[in-house]
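Case 510 in the screening queue. Each case pairs one protein sequence with one candidate compound; here the compound is alpha-L-arabinofuranose. For every case the pipeline is the same: read the inputs, emit a complex structure as tokens, and attach any notable structural observations.

Predict complex for case 510.
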Amino acid sequence: MSPNTPLRAVIDLDVLGPVISRHIYGHFAEHLGRCIYGGFWVGEDSSIPNEGGIRRDVVEALRKLQIPNLRWPGGCFADEYHWRDGIGPREQRPRMVNSHWGDIVEDNSFGTHEFMALCELLGADPYVSGNVGSGTVREMSEWVEYLTRAGDSPMASLRRQNGRDEPWKVPFWGIGNEAWGCGGNMRAEAYADLARQYSTYVRDHGENKVYRIAAGASDTDYAWTEALMKALCIGCGPFPQNIYQAISVHHYTVTGPWEDKGDAVKFDNDQYYSTMLKAQEIDQILQGHSNVMDVYDPHKKVGLVLDEWGTWWNAEPGTNPGFLYQQNTLRDALVASVHFDAFHRHAERLVMTNIAQTVNVLQAMILTDEESGALVLTPTYHVYAMNTGHHDARALDVDFVGALPERDVDGTSIPLLSASASAKDDTALVSLSNLDAEQPATLLLDLRGRAVAGWTAQLLSAPSLNTHNTAGDPVAVQPVDFTAVKDHPSGLELELPPHSYVTVSLNLEV
Ligand code: AHR
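Case 510 output:
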């Protein structure tokens, strides 16, 4: 290869890999800070336009992302939430202390009916996290019955008394959360037994088939995953459909010690590259859990669900530290794009992910101004928007030929280009991240196997990595048409700007 030959990314457009489930683009909303209250929910009497108390602008923005599912009510909150406190007339609902998040009083005005109404408005599948840590098997079992049972039953009647005749569909159910920590400080084997027990009573009522997700490991705790896989006892008899069908894992991008995770907006290039090193670790973590699962389940019947991920910075100065409100810059967008590339590569085992969290908490899609109520879309939102073409598409391998630009970060060499691709019907979508803070990257997309009839491309970048959107400047970071693309005999040649995210949508000839 001549020294002038640009780096090539070879994509065989006709070699289709596993389906990238749209649920990989899932979301998470906890009773935490201003995610539910002030984020999704403003109440019916608010001057902010709302649909039965739910902010209309938030719903409209999320519908554009085609959000496939929404996890609720936690997180750590799930294991102290008692669902019966959140039904019936709002003024009569008992109050509780949200001890994990700000130690504030929760009035339960947003409960089961409000959540299900939100999912209906969003067109998203509900993913309900049940309470194992401080709840009971009966409580969880009755919640499923309340939500999903038609006809005559005690819980179906109670639901009807509260104004809802038809049962809802609830396809996803979490058996607790972080059982090794805030969800009960359990040991893996003890929790695995509880997960079997609770799952048994999460019944399929009528047509509603529940996909039960056992609370999984933190980061690289592969022993936790192994304990849950052993407890499934695949091969001991018929595949245990009445126990759990998937295992979760949580991994946050945290740069620095827990006590000082760094500022969301003020960071230098070294801190930026350390963040990219951390973000890229997700690939190895997913591989590690998949490897363990493969030993017990080589046919990949059990799903892996990353139901919490994202950046976690110090809370914005002047805000309640227990509310986990943080700004979101172009750096966060690149953390997201690197994660999505890894998710696509692991699509065979990884069936769902949920970013933490959708509004006003951690790596949010949407920030709402506390005073004015103004809504701001974050750079991370735009990566989700640019990637909707990957939903339910078939993964395509991207093979780099040539020397990938790299950088030594804290003794580890990290690639400064990240890519993934997928195809659906007669289109293919290629995602490209140039992680170099300062240098552009020239890349040849070497497209094989199918003829390309046309293309469009979008660019997400900004003058600096810490550029972010605010109520005063809501479009400082937003996608624009990308034109630095030239036709080439082998495909397309692109000049990716420094710190940029680019998607190329290809129309394939039939
Ligand atoms: O997303 C914030 C918290 O992080 C969740 O409540 C918990 O599950 C995790 O530790």
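Case 510 observations:
- The chain has a mean pLDDT of 96.
- The chain is about 25% helix and 25% strand.
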